[in-house]
């Protein structure tokens, strides 16, 4: 410690020269570009929205701020009560068709850059609520950056997902097992494919419903 | 809960004041129920509430069931409670589907039991029962622009089938 202070004093006096000065600079200065620095800052100072939809809310926003899981370790402990101050929204639970416009409005009110995590089976796909009242997947009405599977996911899973999101924010999205097993491009899609045409069954059910109402 | 003879007694007394208002009684698994004529439902409920010695002055629940293959298909259930003697009585009115998209109608009992206001709105929301004389008969849980009566048994369940490539390959 003392030695470092002495060297810093020497440098300030201008006593360090040549190779010694270069080594000093190499030790003290980190070079990066602005985007990386910005991504690093953003990823490590997230403001999540104080927002819960259903039972997953117990596991995510509520448990994560407690001492046991402590999302402050990842720099996201400042939950914001207003979407205008928040960077990230966690959809924790099923989104009913009456709630969907409200969620979309909250998301629209958040300032760029913003991220959305769809947590649990229900908000990702409708889950067990395959019925008339629940939106079958929140990405039907808003963009989602990350899906966390589970019913509900444990808080550890949410934290793991959150660290993945941090890597994505820093411009280095994880491919996970698809990368490890060289399986990129083997994603499975429901019938209709990624461009989200309704499946024939869904289209038929919809037509039947409309027919019954008209009849 | 009135026992079976007590239920018949109630029926007889209503019959004297409102002939034809009670169509049938049932006493099943210790639960007493009156099957009322939908046109005189207010007379029956009002009598049970006001008549001396009755005092069923608390509507603990109002709900509807769809007994689809049966005719008439809609059952409107009023669960009444006598809070002095802690006796419960169910009044049931069966409504036929008028067809052609028209809604089955029954008199609203909000005047008698103010608590029925939200419960009748819920029944309207899910089963499309029109309560005549309700102060504000609008949807209560589903969005206002929702089309259809989702708890009817002929309403499609909705949702989407989840199809994975495995199923498509083997069963598609």
Describe the protein's architecture and organization.
The complex is a heterodimer of chains A (215) and B (172). With 215 residues, chain A is mainly α. Chain A has two domains: 30 residues, no CATH class; 134 residues, Rossmann fold (3-Layer(aba) Sandwich). Chain A is built from nine helices and three strands. Chain A has a three-stranded parallel β-sheet. The longest helix of chain A is centred in the C-terminal third of the chain and has 15 residues. Chain B is an alpha/beta fold and 172 residues long. Chain B has one domain: NADH:ubiquinone oxidoreductase Nqo5 subunit (Beta Polymerase, domain 2, 2-Layer Sandwich). Helices cover 25% and strands 27% of the residues of chain B. Chain B has four helices and seven strands, in the order H-E-E-H-E-E-E-E-H-E-H. In chain B, the strands form two sheets. A five-stranded mixed β-sheet of chain B has the order 1-2-5-4-3. The longest helix of chain B is centred in the first third of the chain and has 14 residues. Chain B is elongated. Chains A and B meet through helix 9 of A and loops of B.
Write the layout of secondary structure elements.
The complex is a heterodimer of chains A (215) and B (172).
Chain A lengths: L1 H12 L4 H11 L5 H10 L12 H9 L23 E5 L7 H10 L5 E5 H6 L20 E3 L6 H15 L7 H4 L19 H15 L1
Parallel strand pairs in A: 1-2, 2-3
Chain B lengths: L3 H14 L4 E7 L2 E6 L4 H10 L7 E9 L7 E9 L4 E9 L9 E3 L8 H12 L2 E3 L32 H7 L1
Parallel strand pairs in B: 2-5, 6-7
Antiparallel strand pairs in B: 1-2, 3-4, 4-5
């Amino acid at each position: 410690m003392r030695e470092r202070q002495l060297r810093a004093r020497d440098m300030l006096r201008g006593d360090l020269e040549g190779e010694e000065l270069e080594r000093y600079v190499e030790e003290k200065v980190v070079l990066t570009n602005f985007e990386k620095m910005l991504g690093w800052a953003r990823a490590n100072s997230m403001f999540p929205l104080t927002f819960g939809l259903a039972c997953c809310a117990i596991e995510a926003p509520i448990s994560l701020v407690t001492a046991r899981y402590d999302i402050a370790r990842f720099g996201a402990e400042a939950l914001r009560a207003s979407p205008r101050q928040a960077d990230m929204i966690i959809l924790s639970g099923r989104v009913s068709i009456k709630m969907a416009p409200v969620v979309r409005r909250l998301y629209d009110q958040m300032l760029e850059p913003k991220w959305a995590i769809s947590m649990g089976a229900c908000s990702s796909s409708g889950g067990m609520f395959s019925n008339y009242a629940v939106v079958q997947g929140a990405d039907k009405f808003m963009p989602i950056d990350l899906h966390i599977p589970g019913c509900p996911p444990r808080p550890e899973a949410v934290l793991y997902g959150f660290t993945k999101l941090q890597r994505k924010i820093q411009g280095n999205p994880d491919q996970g097992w698809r990368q490890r097993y060289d399986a990129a491009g083997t994603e499975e899609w429901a019938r209709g494919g990624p461009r989200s045409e309704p499946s024939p069954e869904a289209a038929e059910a919809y037509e039947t419903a409309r027919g019954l109402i008209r009849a | 809960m009135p026992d079976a003879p007590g239920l018949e007694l109630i029926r007889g007394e209503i019959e004297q004041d409102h002939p034809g208002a009670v169509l049938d009684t049932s006493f099943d698994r210790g639960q007493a129920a009156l099957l009322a004529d939908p046109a005189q439902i207010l007379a029956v409920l009002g009598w049970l509430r006001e008549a001396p010695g009755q005092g069923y002055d608390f509507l603990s629940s109002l709900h509807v069931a769809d007994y689809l293959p049966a005719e008439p298909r809609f059952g409107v259930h009023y669960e009444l409670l006598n809070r002095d003697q802690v006796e419960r009585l169910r009044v049931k009115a069966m409504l036929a589907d008028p067809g052609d998209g028209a809604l089955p109608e029954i008199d609203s009992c909000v005047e008698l039991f103010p608590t029925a206001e939200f419960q009748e709105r819920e029944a309207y929301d899910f089963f499309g029962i029109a309560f005549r004389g309700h102060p504000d008969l609008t949807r209560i849980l589903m969005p206002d622009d929702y089309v259809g009566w989702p708890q009817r048994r002929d309403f499609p369940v909705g949702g989407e089938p989840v199809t994975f490539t495995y199923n498509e390959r083997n069963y598609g």
